Amino acid sequence: MKKNQDTNFKNYLKTHEIHRKPFLFRLTGRFTLFFFLQLILFLLFYVSGNYQHFLDTTQNLILFLCSAISIILILLSLTGLLLSIVFFTIQRKAFYWVYFSCYLFILLTVPAIFIALRVLTILSRGLGR
Questions:
Q1: CA Rg, the chain, in Å?
Q2: SS3 (DSSP) at 19
Q3: Neighbour tally for 96: CB within 10 Å
Q4: Degrees (nearest 5) of the Cα angle 27, 29, 35?
Q5: pLDDT in tens, 56-99
Q6: Per-residue CA distances from 11 to 2, 6, 15, 29, 82 (Å)
Q7: Which of 17, 30, 36, 29 lies closest to 83, judged by CA?
Q8: CA dihedral 114, 119, 123, 125 (to 10 degrees)
Q9: CB crowding 58-84: b at 16 or more within 10 Å, else e
């Protein structure tokens, strides 16, 4: 009975191809998703802080954290772009292009957010300083 179950499982694995992504690719994707969601959350904190009259130091801290997260996101998206190209050329799986387009979207939007955050930081500190 045990041998029959083992052969059924092996046949199942042969017929249903399992798409396991490499560890570094999964790690990069999860970090990118985490930091992207964290950036959105901090931006929402900043917007709600404007309406709820947070202290200036708190608003500056939120802007600084958003800037740091956007730098990390730029580096992670560059790494993800490179990894998706490399793994597509090695494995020839089409789903790497989906990840490529997501990383490209992040790489195009986050620098604009970073520039806007730096402008807000400069304006919040005052032009005379």
A1: 22
A2: coil
A3: 20
A4: 100
A5: 888 899 999 999 999 999 999 999 999 999 988 988 878 888 89
A6: 14, 9, 6, 31, 35
A7: 29
A8: 50
A9: ebeebbebbbebbebbeebbebbbebb
- Give pTM, 2 decimals: 0.78
Interatomic CA distance for residues 56 and 86, integer angstroms: 45
Tokens 């994707």 sit at which residue?
Answer: 29
The length of the chain, given as a count of residues? 129
Per-residue pLDDT of 37-50, as tens digits, reads: 999 999 999 999 98
Q: In 3D, which of 32, 98, 28, 39 has the Cα closest to residue 63?
A: 39
Q: Which amino acid appears at position 81 of this protein? A: L
The DSSP line for 67-120 is HHHHHHHHHHHHHHHHHHHHHHHHH--THHHHHHHHHHHHHHHHHHHHHHHHHH
